[in-house]
Amino acid sequence: MTQHRIDPLGALVTAVGAAALLWLPFVVLKPNRILPGDARSLIAVLPPSTTIACLACLILVALAALAMSKPPVRLAAALLGVIVVAAAISTAGDVLTPPGNRVVRVAPGSGFWVLLVAVGLMATDAITRLRPRPAARVLMLALFAAVTLFALAHGTFDHLSVMREYAVNAGRFAHEVRQHVWLALGSLGTAVIVALPLGILCHRVPRLRGGVLGTLNVIQTIPAIALFGILMAPLGALAAAVPLAAQLGIRGIGAAPAVVALFLYSLLPVVANTVAGLKRVSPAAVEAARGMGMTSWQVLTGVELSLALPTILTGIRIVLVQNIGLVTVAALIGGGGLGVFVFQGIGQTAIDLVLLGAIPTVALAFSAAVLLDAVVETMNRARQ
Amino acid sequence: MPGSAALLRLAALALLVAFLLTPYSFAPLFEPLTQYGAPAIYDQGNLLTLALAQIGTVLCATAASTLVAVGLGIAVTRPSGAQFLPLSRTLVNIGQTFPPVAVLAIAVPLVGFGLKPTLIALFCYGLLPIFENTIGGLRACPPAVLEAASGMGMSPGQRLLSIELPLAMPLILEGIRISLVINVGTAAIGSTVGAKGLGEVIIAGLLSNNAAFILQGGLLTGLIAILLYDTMVAVERRLFGNVRIE
Amino acid sequence: MITVDKLSKRYGTTTVVDQASMVIERNSITVIVGTSGSGKSTLLRMINRLVEPSSGRVLIDGNDTAREPAHLLRRRIGYAIQGHGLFPHRTVAENIATVPRLLGWDQARVRARVDELLGVFQLDPAEFAGKFPHQLSGGQQQRVGVARALAAEPAVLLMDEPFGALDPIIRAKAQDDLLDIQRRFATTIVLVTHDMDEAFRLGSRVAVMSQGRVLQYDRPAALLTRPADPFVSRMTGSADRAMKLLSLTTAGEVAVPGSSNGPTVAASASLRDALSELVWRGAESAAVVDANGMPCGCLTVAAILAHGRPG
Question: Class of A167-383 per CATH?
Answer without folding.
Answer: mainly alpha
